[in-house]
Amino acid sequence: MAWAHLSASLIRRRSSNPASRMFFTFFPDSLHPKRLSCPRAAGWHLVSALPVNFQMGQSCGLGVRSTFTSPVYCGEAPHLSDSGISITNSKIDTSCEDVPGSPPGFAPLSFKSDASDLRKPLSCLNGNAPPFTPYLQHQFQEQSPMSSALVTPFSKLRLDEGVEMDTSSYVDPRSRALLPSWVLDGQGRIVAPLARILDEDLLAVFARDKSGCTFLQANYPPEGTPEREAIGKKLLENGELFEALCADVFGNFFIQCAVQHSNQTEQRWIISHMLGRKLYPMCLNRYSCRVVQKVIECLPEELKSLLMVELHSTNLVNLCTDQNANHVIQKIMTTFPLSQWQFIVEHFIKNRDDLFSVAENKYGCRVVQLIIEVLSDNSKKPLKHRPEMLEEIMGHLLSNCERLASNEFANYVIQHIIKAGPLSDYRDRLIELCLLRNLLSLSQEKYASHVVEKALEFAPPALLAEMMDEIFDGYVPHPETKKDALDIMLFHQFGNYVVQRMLDICCEAARAKKAGINLPDSDQRMEWLDRLETRIAQNRHRLARYSSGKKILATLQQLNDCSAVQSTPVRGRRAFPIVPPSYR
Questions:
Q1: Among 270, 375, 546, 553, which residue has the least CB neighbours within 10 Å?
Q2: Torsions phi, psi of 425, nearest 5?
């Protein structure tokens, strides 16, 4: 087994002969590596111990710097080391210090002679080089591709693949790799007529190709033409080809085009290919799910309603939580009337655990939000059991509000209930049953703190007052530290956002009062602002050390600078102390 020791970079030393160039021939041996040593000879010396791979060239502004290995130096034969490196000189016209030019058989490389670019740090060498390991031995198999490079290194020399190349005449190999050459002109454009493409039975080939698929969509034949009939026979009457193209990265776009322009006969063919236990896997596929959505969007209701019958026997939880199928479910909910898909709602009403599984899923949480939106939308055609279904769904969610509010994705469902206008009754119930008496603990959770913020923003005046009173006075201070809930939240990594929301709500009342607008609870909000301002002033130096604290200080400072806070009959106002410059 031959050993190749790849650790040194051969660089020409500045000498009186600037026109020297080196060529090397490798004779691999199995010698144990010794410490690198090489006296200066023939105007050259070996430097560094940087291991470099066997792609022994790098294209840069200076040409090519070749890297090879000479673990030992043979003093008796300066031109040949005992590791087998033969060193010879030849002439080349150059004025650059590093080895310029290109290896034999390569076109000359242009480079800049700017003095600032003459030397590059070792970190700028070939990006394929392994990390620096001094005197590391690299063992190569005799049949490996690298072994052939050891005999004639320059015959296998390649430029660095990471170097930017001119791509003005480059053609994406995938875009036309499937197309025969006779359909393209000299510039790579498709010039073959559609009729000949169909006669040559190339419809599937074109549909699977990026450029071919675009060509078919742009030249889709109108109804009644021979080309349209040929496409119908080859595509729509062939179920296997239809399914294969639906799941293809480019073919699905052609199928969508065919669905969009289909007539009644073609529409029946399309539906027939999607029924019979084929709809479920199509919904789960990344590309065919788009075809299903296009069918739901374009086909008449009497045909696409057959798809709903097919979904009755499928796994609804998987469809709602799948990365692709959830879009099909959402398309059904926004396109079909509720009476067509109420079996989905009824399933979640009967199976509460399935509802929670979907609500706590990254993709399913949006499905649950959409169900709530549709059930609470009174503008749509009324359904007899709509209020009852909404009450059942909301009952399941509110009874497990704390669990859902603390979940990474289900908290969006709870936030949607709080901010949706038609769900104001459920919002009030949620605040009363779930949030009140738990504000401190929920404010210190990563996801539940978002729910508390949303509740402060959308709560009615009465419930807002209860929430504020709980934070200010609802918790007994710690017997030793004397810290209350506001102190804890003020410096908590999540609770400080709740305090910022409280401050924004109070500042909103101050700005409204300055503009001549009196909110129903304006005086009460001004009192809360005074209490917040006092507590923040007591901790301003500590707050100024944190980014969250700086935001709180900046909010109050901006309010004072704009003179938004004015004296009130209830309590005299004072200017907030300016933030120390050292903390700004």
A1: 546
A2: -65, -45
